[in-house]
Design a protein that fits this description.
Organism: Paeniroseomonas aquatica
Radius of gyration: 24 Å
Number of domains: 1
Number of strands: 0
Largest sheet: none
Protein name: Low affinity iron permease family protein
Keywords: Coiled coil, Membrane, Transmembrane, Transmembrane helix
Pfam family, one: Iron_permease
InterPro entries: Iron_permease_Fet4
Order of helices and strands: HHHH
Distance between the termini: 41 Å
Shape: elongated
Oligomer: single chain
Helix content: over 70%
Length: 123
């Protein structure tokens, strides 16, 4: 089930970022606006666009989050490999994203000190 969601989410997020998807959204809004006088700008007419955009927005939140999670994981793996492969790099920084707030703050302060002094900080 999760593999099916992953494939569907990847496909949908790729399609949503294409120019034709934007043009389709513009066309829907234009059709909706043009039909306003036909329906007398009624509450139902307004409800159609409100409901449609709410549903699309709700679903897109999950697609965007899925894409962001996937991209973040890939970037972290690439950074970890660069740290691992770089002589003199601090391997203690690998998988830092899995640490708590206190550990992140401590690492950030250590990096700030390193930037100010230019010296290597022991892990």
């Amino acid at each position: 089930m999760s593999e099916l969601f992953a494939r569907a989410a990847h496909w949908a997020s790729c399609q949503a970022g294409r120019s034709w998807a934007f043009m389709l959204a513009v066309a829907v809004v234009v059709v909706w606006a043009v039909t306003g006088p036909v329906f007398g700008f009624s509450d139902t007419w307004q409800l159609v666009i409100n409901t449609g955009t709410t549903i699309v927005t709700f679903l897109m939140v999950f697609l965007i989050q899925n894409a962001q999670n996937r991209d973040t994981q890939a970037i972290q793996l690439k950074l970890d490999e660069l740290i691992r492969a770089t002589r003199g790099a601090q391997n203690s920084l690998m998988a830092l994203e899995d640490q708590g707030e206190a550990e992140l703050a401590q690492a950030r302060e250590a990096m700030r000190e390193l930037a100010e002094t230019g010296e290597r900080i022991s892990p």
